[in-house]
């Protein structure tokens, strides 16, 4: 049988009392010779030899002694005893070496916060990059989905509504519109002096007629005798007479005109007038049925029918009469309008005023006609009643359409207005800090679609009104507050 003393001594050496004068070896030193139970005399004789055989302590860092593996050729009982001895030796506190406080754990603890910060920063960069390329497409898809939903809802509503429409109801609607609007429409005759060129033509024709007569239409908008018509109908007139729907003729005086919108307000002395009801041109949708009533070629109370073909049109048809397309916001329709219809009303299916018929393309009707929206007409009418003229706000800048290379965003219909120059440093724009090269994108929170839109926003405001402008300058968004001035009269000529 093999000697089992060494492993048993190793496992239980702490439990054996250390004889006097004998030191316990530190971890890493060679194990002392096995101690065998002897009588006291023999133990005392062996003690000096153990003391002399013990080496000097090593200066190297202590190392953990490797665990002794049990012998594989032991019998079952002996293997179990050796396993328990080895387990006891592994758990012996004297064999466990505490890890000294070194630099390595401190460096690991210092690296962890920096690594976490770098990881967080990298994650944020990746998220921003993903958002930069994915969010615009997602927003665009949502917008298109919303629009498609609106179109589908309109389609379903229109399909259901057409099932309940009858020709008899449409016929009655036409008749009721004519009955409601007809009493408010008037015929206007204007006598004016002939120009020198016209007089020369009459002399060549041996004619004695040196005065000319023009005609047009109008609509009663006030029970006190106020009539709204086009400025080009009554301009340069020596005398103006109005024929009412009941056949009465009354002379008319001019209350005021507005060259930029080609509108004029007349006043007659008459009672028992039936003014038309104002409608909401902004609420009128493209495709809605509309009626035009007027006196084409002197044929009074002529009614024509069509649909609203478009809105927010800018045309130059009225500029020869002094109007400005920049301040006009025409509605387009296919209603038959001819010379003599100018100044007459455009009404909706409720018989309310939604526009003033003003211009056509060419000298005769060619399928396209234009009218001034009722909301703009009402503003001009009320201002003329207050002051006799239209006082517009003045910004004091020179504007130009934003070119494609300077367009901000993907919506080409909302471009803004490019400032080419400022009139002077004391102008409203100069005082507010507007500079050349600025792109005006918003006015009072409303997105500016083009130059004409901005001019209408400013022009519709009174002098002294405060307007908040959203400016794009050198890639930065700025907010400026402008106190509008009074538009110089020379600019309206």
Automatic annotation (TrEMBL):
Composition bias, kind Pro residues: at what positions? 17-36
An annotated GO BP = proteolysis
Q: Does the keyword Hydrolase apply?
A: yes
**What does the UniProt keyword field contain?**
Hydrolase, Protease
Q: Which residues form the PDZ domain?
A: 392-475
Q: Name one GO molecular function term.
A: peptidase activity
Where does the record place the region Disordered? 1-80
List, alphabetically, the Pfam families matched.
PDZ_2, Trypsin_2
PROSITE patterns (alphabetical): PDZ (PS50106)
Q: Which InterPro entries match?
A: Chloro_Bact_Ser_Proteases, PDZ, PDZ_sf, Peptidase_S1_PA, Peptidase_S1_PA_chymotrypsin, Peptidase_S1C
Q: What family does this chain come from, according to its entry?
A: Belongs to the peptidase S1C family.
List the PANTHER family hit by this protein, alphabetically.
PEPTIDASE S12, PROTEASE DO-LIKE 8, CHLOROPLASTIC
- This protein is called Serine protease, S1-C subfamily, contains C-terminal PDZ domain
What organism is this sequence from? Neorhodopirellula lusitana
Question: What is the organism lineage in this UniProt record?
Answer: Bacteria, Pseudomonadati, Planctomycetota, Planctomycetia, Pirellulales
């Amino acid at each position: 049988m093999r000697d089992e003393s060494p492993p048993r001594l190793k496992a239980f050496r702490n439990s054996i009392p250390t004889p006097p004068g004998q030191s316990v070896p530190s971890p890493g030193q060679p194990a002392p010779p096995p101690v065998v139970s002897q009588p006291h005399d023999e133990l005392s004789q062996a003690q000096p030899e153990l003391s002399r055989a013990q080496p000097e302590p090593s200066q190297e860092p202590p190392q953990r002694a490797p665990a002794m593996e049990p012998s594989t050729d032991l019998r079952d009982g002996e293997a179990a005893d050796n396993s328990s001895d080895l387990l006891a030796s592994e758990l012996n506190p004297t064999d466990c070496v505490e890890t000294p406080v070194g630099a390595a754990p401190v460096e690991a603890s210092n690296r962890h916060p920096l690594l976490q910060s770098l990881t967080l920063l990298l994650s944020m960069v990746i998220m921003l990059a993903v958002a930069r390329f994915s969010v615009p497409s997602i927003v665009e898809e949502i917008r298109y989905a919303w629009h498609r939903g609106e179109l589908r809802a309109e389609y379903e509503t229109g399909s259901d509504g057409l099932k309940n429409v009858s020709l008899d109801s449409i016929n009655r609607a036409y008749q009721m519109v004519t009955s409601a609007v007809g009493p408010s429409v008037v015929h206007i005759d204007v006598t004016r002096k002939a120009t020198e060129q016209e007089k020369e033509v009459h002399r060549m024709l041996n004619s004695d007629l040196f005065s000319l007569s023009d005609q047009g239409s109008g609509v009663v908008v006030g029970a006190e005798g106020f009539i709204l018509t086009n400025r080009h109908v009554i301009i340069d007139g020596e005398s103006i007479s109005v024929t009412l729907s009941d056949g009465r003729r009354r002379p008319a005086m001019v209350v005021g005109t507005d060259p930029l919108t080609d509108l004029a307000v007349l006043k007659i002395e008459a009672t028992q007038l039936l003014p038309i009801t104002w409608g909401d041109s902004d609420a009128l949708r493209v495709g809605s049925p509309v009626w035009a009533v007027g006196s084409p070629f002197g044929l009074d109370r002529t009614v024509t029918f069509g649909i609203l073909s478009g809105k927010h049109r800018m045309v130059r048809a009225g500029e020869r009469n002094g109007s400005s397309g920049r301040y006009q916001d025409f509605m387009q329709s296919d209603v038959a309008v001819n010379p003599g219809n100018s100044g007459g009303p455009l009404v909706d299916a409720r018989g309310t005023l939604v526009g003033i018929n003003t211009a056509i393309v060419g000298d005769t009707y060619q399928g396209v006609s234009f009218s001034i929206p009722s909301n703009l007409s009402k503003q001009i009418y009320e201002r003329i009643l207050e002051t006799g003229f239209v006082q517009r706000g003045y910004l004091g800048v020179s504007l130009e359409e934003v070119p494609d290379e300077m367009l901000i965003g993907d919506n080409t219909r909302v471009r803004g207005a490019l400032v080419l120059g400022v009139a002077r440093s004391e102008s409203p724009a100069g005082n507010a800090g507007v500079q050349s090269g600025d792109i005006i994108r918003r006015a009072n929170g409303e997105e500016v679609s083009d130059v004409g839109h901005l001019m209408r926003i400013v022009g519709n405001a009174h002098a002294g009104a405060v307007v908040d402008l959203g400016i794009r300058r050198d890639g930065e968004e700025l907010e400026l507050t402008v106190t509008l001035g009074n538009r110089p009269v020379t600019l309206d000529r």
